[in-house]
Amino acid sequence: MIIYESKLEGTQNQYEKLDAAIRTGRFVRNSIIRAWMDNQIKSRNEAYAYCKTLADHPEFPWAKQLNSQARQAHVERAWASIERFYRNCKAKVPGKKGFPKFRKSQVRDSVEYKVTGWKLSEDRRHLTFTDGFQAGTFKLWGSRNLHFSQLNQIKRVRVVRRHDGYYAQFLIDHKREEKKELTGRQIGLDVGLNHFYTDSFGEKIDNPRFLRKDERRIKKLQRRLSKTQKGSKKRVQARNKLGRAHLKVSRRRNDWVCKLAQRVIRFNDLVAIENLKVRNMIKNHYLAKSISDAAWYRFREWLEYFGVVYGVPVIAVNPSYTSQNCSNCGQKVVKTLSTRTHKCPHCGYIADRDENAAINILKFAFKQSATTVGRTECEVSGEIPLCLVLEAEKSKGTPRKRKPK
């Protein structure tokens, strides 16, 4: 599956109708969660039946205006969170088990259609919504061409609302495969904060620190937002400006790690990385902002995705003792975090700390690959899969009109 994304251009009245569809989808999802909490539904089929009851209820006339398959899609979202909670409880995951929560009203939200409720024009440049809200026809702005895909290949259409406008995401049933020549190179990567990563050949990639570079402007916008009155138009405008500033940082960061991951995959036949628990690492309040700005986990997701596309194995190894062990003799050499040079008293080997760790990561990957094939599937999480959204291919961007919300 791949995803193409285009911006929707319409009138303010059309955007308000999309907002109504998004609110209805959120209402359906929250109603399913409430019914489950009240022990009214106990299975997915009962959830589908309860969704039909909501649509026919006289107190909720707006629920029937949303396309029936769109309501089913939001039922699937709700039930997926319930199943995840049960799965974590069964596996006895330590800490919180992810109890399903109600989704609150926020700027970033979405509504999802399946194969009905929408229609593409013949030139693939206009999208029309045909459900009860009658949002009408929108012009599509983007650099991706939908002419290469048949209509029966488009399995879902998701409308995403962000601070800078509304977007349509097309989920296309297509398996991407790229040819790659063998290079004879195997590489181990050790990520860090001073440098984004150091590989087993000693090459270092600087950390771009996108958030740190724009932090001064973001703080200024946050101060402006805090001075506005709640519920006023000025506050809405200030919130959108702040949201667009964060979007700019996020998009630059994602584009950079995407291009870097693709380059690493194309020039190597095997990639070894650390299986870092980033969620636990950001609990350190002194380093949380820097770790989040580095986007290590997003880099790993792109590596795994391009590994599947180009047929390159990406192996995640246990990070224990990768920095402490000597890559030459294997003896343990205790070092503090401030010690940046590895000096082995046993064999006299001297190297950069991160380079030594990268070599150990590659060696651990060889041992692990002898007993397992490693990770061969791309595990993607979040609202937007990493299939093709903002993918780093050389293509000309189409100029588009930006309209504030």
Can you put this structure into words, describing what you see?
- The protein is of the alpha+beta class and 405 residues long.
- It contains 9 helices and 14 strands.
- The protein has a 7-stranded antiparallel beta sheet with strand order 2-6-7-1-5-4-3.
- β13 (341-343) and β14 form a beta hairpin.
- The radius of gyration is 24 Å and the shape is elongated.
- 30% of the residues are buried.
Secondary structure: number of strands: 14
Order of strands across the widest beta sheet? 2-6-7-1-5-4-3
Q: What does the largest sheet look like?
A: 7 strands, antiparallel
Supply the number of helical segments: 9
Record the SSE blueprint.
Layout: E1 2-9, H1 12-37, H2 44-56, H3 68-90, E2 109-113, E3 118-120, E4 126-129, E5 136-141, E6 154-162, E7 165-172, E8 186-191, E9 195-199, E10 204-206, H4 210-227, H5 233-266, E11 270-274, H6 278-281, H7 288-294, H8 296-310, E12 314-317, E13 341-343, E14 350-352, H9 353-369
Parallel strand pairs: 8-11, 11-12
Antiparallel strand pairs: 1-5, 1-7, 2-6, 3-4, 4-5, 6-7, 8-9, 9-10, 13-14
Helix pairs in contact: 1-2, 1-3, 2-3, 4-5, 5-8
